[in-house]
Design brief:
With 253 residues, the chain is an alpha/beta fold. Helices cover 42% and strands 14% of the residues. Helix 6 crosses helix 7.
């Protein structure tokens, strides 16, 4: 019986090349051909610019649903390496065990792992630990780099109403400069609040005057101010000249 192969490919950041997907699929296709397997182009599952730390990826979800369905349209899942599937030991073992129970072979071709092999569980565990450590080390390096930018007076966040983010010396580093048109609106909001006007009144006034909001709805450049938005702007330290960094921590579970 000729085994039918699906493939899963992923890259984690929008700073990486989308061509990575093509390269991963090519390696899987060549592996299938060398083993006499049938490579199913209609069952190539892809996640672009998504981290392997979390399991909430649309391409991965579709692949698992197909693999665990009664129809089971393929017998083997090919990967470039195990980190494409998961970047932590827990998820790697969970996927391995679920697919193994369903009778689906999992083959990270670059690492020479095949779930049909009795040593596969050990190899998946070891590589899962390595991938997990890589993510932790990368997080530390990223944090260190951001800290360096803050100490050099550079911007580490995203878009901020009232400011424009511009490149520093044609590098990826950014700094904030005041957007004079939006600064007029911010000063007015603080003045209206200082005069005793409520958040609701301020938002209603700006909407009535069709003042563009920080995040206009698609196809609509006005009438989107809300009391919550006004409150957050009044509380923002940056508008009183204070830069706050490293105040939040994001944890994936």
């Amino acid at each position: 019986m000729i085994l039918r192969c699906a493939a899963y490919a992923r890259y984690s950041s929008d700073l990486q090349s989308p061509l990575s997907i093509d390269d991963q699929v090519r390696i899987c296709r060549e592996y299938a051909k060398s083993r006499g397997f049938a490579f199913l182009d209609e069952h190539v599952y892809v996640d672009e610019a998504l981290s392997g730390v979390g399991a909430d990826r649309p391409g991965l979800g579709r692949m698992l649903n197909a693999a665990l369905s009664p129809a089971r349209p393929f017998d083997v899942i090919l990967l470039d390496d195990s980190s494409r599937l998961a970047r932590n030991t827990k998820d790697a073992l969970t996927f391995f065990e679920r697919l193994n129970f369903a009778g689906i072979r999992l083959i990270p071709v670059s690492q020479g792992i095949d779930s049909d092999n009795e040593q596969a569980h050990v190899l998946v565990t070891v590589h899962g630990m390595v991938d997990s450590l890589y993510v932790k080390e990368l997080a530390k390096k990223t944090h260190r780099g951001l800290e360096g930018r803050v100490l050099r007076g550079q911007h580490t966040g995203g878009r901020c109403y009232g400011y424009d983010s511009v490149s520093v010396d044609d590098t990826t580093a950014k700094r904030l400069i005041i957007n004079e048109n939006e600064a007029v609106v911010i000063r007015r909001i603080f003045e209206m609040s200082a005069s005793g006007q409520s958040l609701k009144t301020i938002a209603k006034t700006l909407n009535h005057e069709c003042v563009p909001s920080p995040r206009p709805r698609s196809g609509n450049n006005y009438a989107t101010w809300s009391p919550t938005c006004i409150r957050e702007m009044l509380r923002r330290d940056l508008y009183v000249g204070k830069v706050v960094w490293n105040a939040s921590r994001f944890v994936k579970t």
